[in-house]
């Protein structure tokens, strides 16, 4: 059974940090590219960060470059999103995604709220 379980979300003040984790099981993790998406109320889901399966090459949406760091631990079947210098506009539900060709798996999401 495929599972992606996100954790680490919460309420943080502007300028603060959070580290999201996504624990994967039920598929060959190292073969899949891993991504983080987010969806704010009333907005479409957007790709935030992605990390390749074999090269660990990372890509980020412009709005988070220099603030977020995406990494993966293949030995632990996990992917992480370190979020620093958080802004109110980062408030959203963050989703973990695994992808291989046309295959897509999603987690249930974790809420991140940036507010004073």
Could you walk me through the main structural features you see in this protein, from its secondary elements to its overall organization?
With 116 residues, the protein is mainly beta. It is built from no helices and 11 strands. The strands form 2 sheets. Strands 2, 4, 5, 6, 9, 10 and 11 form a 7-stranded mixed β-sheet that branches. The radius of gyration is 13 Å and the shape is globular. It starts with a strand and ends with a strand.
Topology:
Blueprint: E1 3-7, E2 10-12, E3 18-25, E4 33-39, E5 46-51, E6 58-60, E7 68-73, E8 78-83, E9 92-100, E10 103-106, E11 110-114
Parallel strand pairs: 2-11
Antiparallel strand pairs: 1-3, 3-8, 4-5, 4-9, 5-6, 7-8, 9-10, 9-11
Number of helices: 0
Query: In what range is the share of β-strand residues?
Result: over 45%
Mean pLDDT: 96
Give me the count of strands. Answer: 11
Return residue spans where pLDDT drops below 50 for at least 5 consecutive residues.
none
The secondary-structure class comes to mainly beta
Distance between the termini: 40 Å
Biggest sheet architecture: 7 strands, mixed
What Rg is obtained from the alpha carbons, in whole angstroms? 13 Å
**Helicity level, as a percent range?**
under 10%
The coarse silhouette is globular
H-E string: EEEEEEEEEEE
């Amino acid at each position: 059974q495929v599972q992606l379980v996100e954790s680490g979300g919460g309420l943080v003040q502007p300028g603060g940090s959070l580290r999201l984790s996504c624990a994967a099981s039920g598929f060959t993790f190292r073969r899949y590219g891993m991504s983080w998406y987010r969806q704010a109320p009333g907005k479409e889901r957007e790709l935030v960060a992605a990390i390749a399966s074999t090269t660990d090459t990372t890509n980020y949406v412009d709005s988070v470059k220099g603030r977020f760091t995406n990494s993966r631990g293949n030995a632990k079947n996990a992917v992480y999103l370190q979020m620093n210098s958080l802004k109110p506009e980062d408030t959203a539900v963050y989703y973990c995604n695994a992808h291989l060709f046309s295959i897509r798996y999603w987690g249930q999401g974790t809420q991140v709220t940036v507010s004073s």
